[in-house]
Amino acid sequence: MSIRDCAMQSKAFAALKDVYDHRDAEAAKWRAAGKKVIGELGCDVPDELIMAGGMLPVQICADPNRPLVETDKYLEYAFDPAVRAQFEKIVDGTYYDQLDALAISNSTDVIIRVFLYLREIHRVEPEKKVPPVAFIDWLFTRHRIHQTRDEFVIELFRQQVEEWAGRSISDEEIRAAARICNENRQALREMAWLRHGAEVRIGGSEALVIIGAGLFMDRAEHTRLVRQVTEDARSWPVLAGPRVFYTGANQEDTVLYEKMEAAGLVVVGEDTDWGDRFYDRDFNLDYPVIRAIVDRYLLREFSAKKSTPAQRKEALDREVDAVNAQGVVFYTNQYDEVATWDMPKQCKSLESRGIKHITFGRMLWPVAKNEDLDDKLAGFAAELKGGVR
Asked: Is residue 212 part of a domain?
């Protein structure tokens, strides 16, 4: 059955895992009901605006088993391999049949390049089945002049969403969607306490399923299921083992976490967009709506892609301390080297405080291709346990 026997037989967890495992199903139901679905590439597309327009936001994801027939025609091999696999589903017609449009935020440099390639494909091959694309050109520096410019950018995106929706979107509709998103984030924080607290009852792989399902389904229904899982999990057995924090490449499935858990590690937190960062920072309902969107997405905890090494060092220190991690696992994919700029400062800080760490760099994707990974994780677990396997 897996992932701790489908999370101790919780019906709510099973429902979330079904969404997580079958990511296209909810969008298909949505479209069958005559409603629109908007894909998101990048972690900084405002869900609140899309939901306010009566549309379902879903995250673009990769298929590790799909041959990259179309991607190889357009992208260099020196792209993050997970992004190349995402690109395949965009250009091979898969998402053309599943989405009404695609919103791309400039969350990483490689995603910006993907947008430029897609824009050119639309220009020179208009017959190709690629969804309509909108681009959100955020400025990520935290100064008032840049926040003002970002408010202009988000107002433009609001107009694009209105075009997709076929109607204007009121401020109150945006606030109503924001309340749903805030309630969802609060439900996830309550769930996360059962993995961050002194007694860990929800493991890392289980948390990835619980959080990740929300990227593909109705947010209010996700909140209901998360709250039920949280209630169920209060009676689950406490997980024993060294507490570790994960940082690095987004994990779109649970394979790496399951390997860490099989080695005896307990993953109590992460700073990735498919994990804890998803529910960081609420929409401030007291602000004007456009300012609130900018505040929420611009001022979340620092991403490795849009911050300085000093900021990332401080952010990692805060988060490791908050979850009382004994160790940190750094993991980056081949051709995804941005996070490695931060690691020297981060490692030095961790070492100064007696927190052990292990680095996996230039890893093959998908995770299963790395043949020696299990042994190295087992060795790290033994080190954290004082040398006892």
From this structure: no
Asked if residue 156 and residue 59 are part of one domain, the reply reads yes
Structure tokens at 121: 């494909």
The domain that holds 363 is classified in CATH as: 3.40.50.11900
Per-residue model confidence as pLDDT tens digits over 161-176 = 999 999 999 999 999 9
pTM: 0.95
Average pLDDT estimate for 221-243: 96
* Enclosing domain of residue 260: 172-201+220-384
Polymer length of the chain:
389
The distance of Cα 203 from the centroid of its chain, to the nearest Å, equals 17
Among 341, 360, 331, 296, which residue's Cα sits nearest to residue 43? Answer: 296
Mean of pLDDT values over 268-279: 95
**Angstrom distances, CA of residue 319 to CA of 143, 322, 357:** 24, 5, 14
Cβ(229)–Cβ(191) below 8 Å: yes
Element (H or E) spanning 109, and its range?
Answer: helix 109-124
Counting Cβ atoms within 10 Å, is residue 383 exposed (0-12), middle (13-18) or buried (19+)?
middle
Q: Is 144 domain-assigned?
A: yes
Amino acid 147: pLDDT: 84
Mean pLDDT to the nearest integer, 271-288: 95
Question: Do 27 and 37 form a contact (C-beta atoms < 8 A)?
Answer: yes
Tell me the backbone φ, ψ of residue 95, rounded to 5 degrees: -75, -20
pLDDT score for 389: 39
Answer whether residue 206 is part of any domain: no
CATH assignment at residue 125? 3.40.50.11890
Distance spanning both ends of the chain, measured CA to CA: 26
- Residue 115 tokens read as 């947008």
State the pLDDT confidence band at 35, using cuts at 50, 70 and 90.
very high
